[in-house]
């Protein structure tokens, strides 16, 4: 981990949300920035961080491919330790970042170090490979979780996810016609990306009131 964070929202907020990026885009991508701003505007202290391979792309080390998600768990735990959240902490991220968070969530929840898990566009399976599911650990998840997912997300559509065995601790917010970045086609759905981000942030606020006590 690079050891650096990007912050949005009030620093004295009651609840902190720690977010990791997806496999191919950095923590300051347009999608991550927009989501963090929406959550910050909703009153959360939002902290974004990068895994080491992504931070390395900013240096002469060059463009390294993303490693297996399982190998990033220790880096996520390190970010939890460094973010300095005295208030309730929710962990999560965009796509792969949320997946890695989901892998460490139950241990941290059992230690009373986090209050919940927030996934923005969970990668239930690779695109065009609907049988390669990444859901086994989600069936027994004990951490309260909210997954915000576009209905046409190529990593898991509403129709596909309906058939998965998921823990009853997981709530899913479906955003109509949203893609993997939660972005809809306005001409088809009648919604804009800003609309969906506002809906997402409002849903996170309501959910956090229940879990971050």
CATH topology: Rossmann fold
Strand order of the largest sheet: 1-3-2-4-5-6-7
Mean pLDDT: 94
Low-confidence stretches: none
Tally of discrete structural domains: 1
What's the CATH architecture name?
Answer: 3-Layer(aba) Sandwich
Beta content comes to: 15-25%
**Structural class designation:** alpha/beta
Main β-sheet description: 7 strands, mixed
Which bin fits the share of residues in helices? 25-40%
Describe this structure in words.
By secondary structure, this protein is an alpha/beta fold. It has a single domain, classed as Rossmann fold. The protein contains seven helices and seven strands. Strands 1-3-2-4-5-6-7 form a seven-stranded mixed sheet, sandwiched between helices. It starts with a strand and ends with a helix.
Give me some keywords for this one.
213 residues, alpha/beta, Rossmann fold, 7 helices, 32% helix
List the helices and strands and how they pair.
Elements: E1 5-8, E2 16-20, H1 30-41, E3 45-49, H2 52-56, H3 73-82, E4 89-94, H4 96-110, E5 116-120, E6 145-150, H5 158-161, E7 170-175, H6 186-189, H7 193-211
Parallel strand pairs: 2-3, 2-4, 4-5, 5-6, 6-7
Antiparallel strand pairs: 1-3
Short description:
With 213 residues, the protein is α/β, with parallel strands linked by helices.
